[in-house]
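Aim 2, interim progress: modelling of the magnesium ion-bound target.
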Amino acid sequence: MNIRERTFLMVKPDGVQRALIGSIISRMEQKGLKLVAMKLMQITPDLAVRHYGEHKGKPFYEGLIEFITSSPVVAMIWEGDDVIEMVRTLIGATDPREAVPGSIRGDLAVFTGKNIVHGSDSLASAKREIGLFFGEEELCSYRLPHEESLYE
Ligand code: DAT
Ligand code: MG
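Predicted structure of the complex, ligand included:
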């Protein structure tokens, strides 16, 4: 049985700088996912450390914190059946050289440290990341006319 889920998706500073916000949102919309929260924001060092805590101590960690706080990002929450795994597939492998064509990183990026987007990797990460970036009052609950055509 499918499970209606929410996931956290972020267009990172490189995606915003390269004017890819619209095309990333389009890919999610075209897939049939529902946007339930979104904002353009500058990540503070404190939020960056909390978001990427799992990578503390890794060789790329300091650079990652510097990069993610360097200019604005677009933070979003998307909703749909099995959306967490689906969005990870749409994003593609962490290293864009290995990401398959058709995926965001496979089509639009060439370097791991500049891989355009972040997507939650599990139900626990999604809940944690949504809580870090959004307050409950920022989420919208609504129906789309085409929902009937997407699901049985
Ligand atoms: P993902 O973003 O696919 O979930 P991750 O959680 O393993 O990947 O790493 C978070 C980010 O850290 C990743 O998007 C880019 C950066 N990163 C990961 N591994 C790296 C590496 N070997 N060199 C440079 N940056 C890296
Ligand atoms: Mg990750």
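Residues 37 and 137 are 10 Å apart (CA to CA). The two ends are 12 Å apart (CA to CA).
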